[in-house]
Specification:
Strand content: 5-15%
Low-confidence stretches: none
Number of domains: 1
Number of strands: 3
Strand order of the largest sheet: 1-3-2
Protein name: MarR family transcriptional regulator
Domain HTH marR-type: 1-148
CATH class: Mainly Alpha
Largest sheet: 3 strands, antiparallel
CATH topology: Arc Repressor Mutant, subunit A
Structural class: mainly alpha
Shape: globular
Distance between the termini: 14 Å
Organism: Streptomyces marincola
Number of helices: 6
Order of helices and strands: HHEHHEEHH
GO molecular function, one term: DNA-binding transcription factor activity
GO biological process, one term: response to stress
Helix content: 55-70%
Oligomer: single chain
Radius of gyration: 19 Å
CATH superfamily: Winged helix-like DNA-binding domain superfamily/Winged helix DNA-binding domain
Length: 155
Protein backbone atom coordinates (compact mmCIF):
# COMPACT_ATOMS: atom_id res chain seq x y z
CA UNK A 1 0.00 0.00 0.00
CA UNK A 2 1.27 3.47 -0.85
CA UNK A 3 2.34 5.60 2.08
CA UNK A 4 0.97 8.72 0.41
CA UNK A 5 -2.73 8.79 -0.49
CA UNK A 6 -3.51 9.47 -4.14
CA UNK A 7 -6.06 12.23 -3.50
CA UNK A 8 -8.56 13.01 -6.21
CA UNK A 9 -7.97 16.08 -8.32
CA UNK A 10 -10.81 18.63 -8.10
CA UNK A 11 -12.26 17.48 -11.46
CA UNK A 12 -12.07 13.84 -10.39
CA UNK A 13 -13.74 14.59 -7.06
CA UNK A 14 -16.48 16.59 -8.81
CA UNK A 15 -17.19 13.66 -11.17
CA UNK A 16 -17.21 11.15 -8.30
CA UNK A 17 -19.44 13.35 -6.11
CA UNK A 18 -21.90 13.88 -8.98
CA UNK A 19 -22.06 10.16 -9.67
CA UNK A 20 -22.69 9.31 -5.99
CA UNK A 21 -25.33 12.03 -5.61
CA UNK A 22 -27.11 10.90 -8.81
CA UNK A 23 -26.94 7.20 -7.93
CA UNK A 24 -28.18 7.64 -4.37
CA UNK A 25 -30.97 10.03 -5.39
CA UNK A 26 -32.10 7.84 -8.30
CA UNK A 27 -32.04 4.60 -6.30
CA UNK A 28 -33.78 6.29 -3.37
CA UNK A 29 -36.57 7.66 -5.51
CA UNK A 30 -37.01 4.42 -7.45
CA UNK A 31 -37.06 2.44 -4.19
CA UNK A 32 -39.74 4.68 -2.69
CA UNK A 33 -41.82 4.40 -5.88
CA UNK A 34 -41.60 0.59 -5.95
CA UNK A 35 -42.74 0.49 -2.33
CA UNK A 36 -45.59 2.94 -2.93
CA UNK A 37 -46.74 1.37 -6.20
CA UNK A 38 -46.46 -2.32 -5.36
CA UNK A 39 -45.83 -2.73 -1.64
CA UNK A 40 -42.55 -4.47 -2.49
CA UNK A 41 -39.20 -3.32 -1.26
CA UNK A 42 -36.45 -2.58 -3.77
CA UNK A 43 -34.69 -5.70 -2.46
CA UNK A 44 -37.80 -7.82 -3.17
CA UNK A 45 -37.91 -6.38 -6.66
CA UNK A 46 -34.22 -7.05 -7.29
CA UNK A 47 -34.49 -10.68 -6.21
CA UNK A 48 -37.65 -11.27 -8.25
CA UNK A 49 -36.21 -9.63 -11.37
CA UNK A 50 -33.22 -11.95 -11.24
CA UNK A 51 -35.28 -15.05 -10.55
CA UNK A 52 -37.81 -14.39 -13.28
CA UNK A 53 -35.00 -13.78 -15.77
CA UNK A 54 -33.43 -17.14 -14.89
CA UNK A 55 -34.31 -20.42 -16.55
CA UNK A 56 -37.37 -21.95 -14.87
CA UNK A 57 -37.51 -19.01 -12.43
CA UNK A 58 -34.84 -20.56 -10.23
CA UNK A 59 -31.28 -19.83 -9.25
CA UNK A 60 -28.82 -21.43 -6.91
CA UNK A 61 -28.64 -19.41 -3.72
CA UNK A 62 -24.95 -18.55 -4.18
CA UNK A 63 -25.47 -17.56 -7.82
CA UNK A 64 -28.18 -15.16 -6.69
CA UNK A 65 -25.86 -13.77 -4.00
CA UNK A 66 -23.16 -13.14 -6.60
CA UNK A 67 -25.59 -11.70 -9.14
CA UNK A 68 -26.90 -9.00 -6.80
CA UNK A 69 -23.54 -8.42 -5.06
CA UNK A 70 -24.91 -8.99 -1.56
CA UNK A 71 -23.47 -10.76 1.46
CA UNK A 72 -24.81 -14.27 2.08
CA UNK A 73 -26.42 -13.21 5.36
CA UNK A 74 -28.31 -10.35 3.71
CA UNK A 75 -29.63 -12.66 1.00
CA UNK A 76 -30.57 -15.28 3.57
CA UNK A 77 -32.62 -12.75 5.55
CA UNK A 78 -34.19 -11.37 2.37
CA UNK A 79 -35.18 -14.82 1.12
CA UNK A 80 -36.62 -15.70 4.53
CA UNK A 81 -38.82 -12.58 4.47
CA UNK A 82 -39.91 -13.29 0.90
CA UNK A 83 -40.67 -16.94 1.70
CA UNK A 84 -42.93 -15.86 4.57
CA UNK A 85 -44.89 -13.70 2.12
CA UNK A 86 -45.07 -16.50 -0.47
CA UNK A 87 -42.99 -14.72 -3.13
CA UNK A 88 -40.22 -17.34 -3.31
CA UNK A 89 -39.59 -20.91 -2.23
CA UNK A 90 -36.44 -22.79 -1.33
CA UNK A 91 -35.75 -26.16 -2.94
CA UNK A 92 -32.94 -28.53 -2.13
CA UNK A 93 -30.55 -29.21 -4.99
CA UNK A 94 -30.89 -32.92 -5.86
CA UNK A 95 -27.31 -33.32 -7.11
CA UNK A 96 -25.66 -31.24 -4.36
CA UNK A 97 -26.77 -31.79 -0.78
CA UNK A 98 -25.23 -28.50 0.35
CA UNK A 99 -26.80 -26.30 -2.29
CA UNK A 100 -30.29 -24.89 -2.60
CA UNK A 101 -32.35 -23.25 -5.28
CA UNK A 102 -34.39 -20.14 -4.71
CA UNK A 103 -37.50 -20.35 -6.88
CA UNK A 104 -40.04 -17.69 -7.75
CA UNK A 105 -43.57 -18.73 -6.81
CA UNK A 106 -46.71 -17.91 -8.81
CA UNK A 107 -47.40 -15.12 -6.30
CA UNK A 108 -43.87 -13.78 -6.80
CA UNK A 109 -44.25 -13.90 -10.57
CA UNK A 110 -47.58 -12.02 -10.32
CA UNK A 111 -46.00 -9.42 -8.02
CA UNK A 112 -43.15 -8.69 -10.44
CA UNK A 113 -45.47 -8.68 -13.45
CA UNK A 114 -47.65 -6.10 -11.71
CA UNK A 115 -44.72 -3.97 -10.49
CA UNK A 116 -42.46 -4.03 -13.56
CA UNK A 117 -44.49 -1.77 -15.87
CA UNK A 118 -44.72 0.94 -13.20
CA UNK A 119 -41.02 0.60 -12.37
CA UNK A 120 -39.98 0.81 -16.02
CA UNK A 121 -42.05 3.96 -16.41
CA UNK A 122 -40.31 5.49 -13.38
CA UNK A 123 -36.88 4.52 -14.80
CA UNK A 124 -37.84 6.12 -18.08
CA UNK A 125 -39.20 9.27 -16.42
CA UNK A 126 -36.28 9.79 -14.02
CA UNK A 127 -33.32 8.49 -16.06
CA UNK A 128 -33.88 7.60 -19.71
CA UNK A 129 -35.85 10.75 -20.62
CA UNK A 130 -33.07 12.97 -19.23
CA UNK A 131 -30.53 11.63 -21.76
CA UNK A 132 -30.09 11.40 -25.49
CA UNK A 133 -29.40 8.04 -27.14
CA UNK A 134 -25.80 9.20 -27.59
CA UNK A 135 -25.62 9.92 -23.85
CA UNK A 136 -27.06 6.49 -23.05
CA UNK A 137 -24.58 4.76 -25.36
CA UNK A 138 -21.67 6.62 -23.75
CA UNK A 139 -22.99 5.92 -20.26
CA UNK A 140 -23.30 2.18 -21.03
CA UNK A 141 -19.73 2.13 -22.37
CA UNK A 142 -18.45 3.87 -19.24
CA UNK A 143 -20.33 1.49 -16.94
CA UNK A 144 -19.05 -1.53 -18.86
CA UNK A 145 -15.48 -0.19 -18.68
CA UNK A 146 -15.68 0.33 -14.92
CA UNK A 147 -17.20 -3.13 -14.43
CA UNK A 148 -14.46 -4.75 -16.52
CA UNK A 149 -11.84 -2.81 -14.57
CA UNK A 150 -13.28 -3.99 -11.26
CA UNK A 151 -13.14 -7.60 -12.47
CA UNK A 152 -9.35 -7.26 -12.60
CA UNK A 153 -9.16 -5.80 -9.07
CA UNK A 154 -9.85 -8.06 -6.11
CA UNK A 155 -11.85 -6.73 -3.17
Amino acid sequence: MNATPRWLAPEQKAAWDSFIRMQETLIGRLSRRIQADSGMSAADYQVLVNLTAAEDGRMRFMDLVKRVEWEKSRMSHQVTRMRKRGLVAREECPDDGRGAFIVVTPAGRKAIEDAAPLHVEDVRRLFIDALTQEDLDAFARICDRVLAHMETRPD
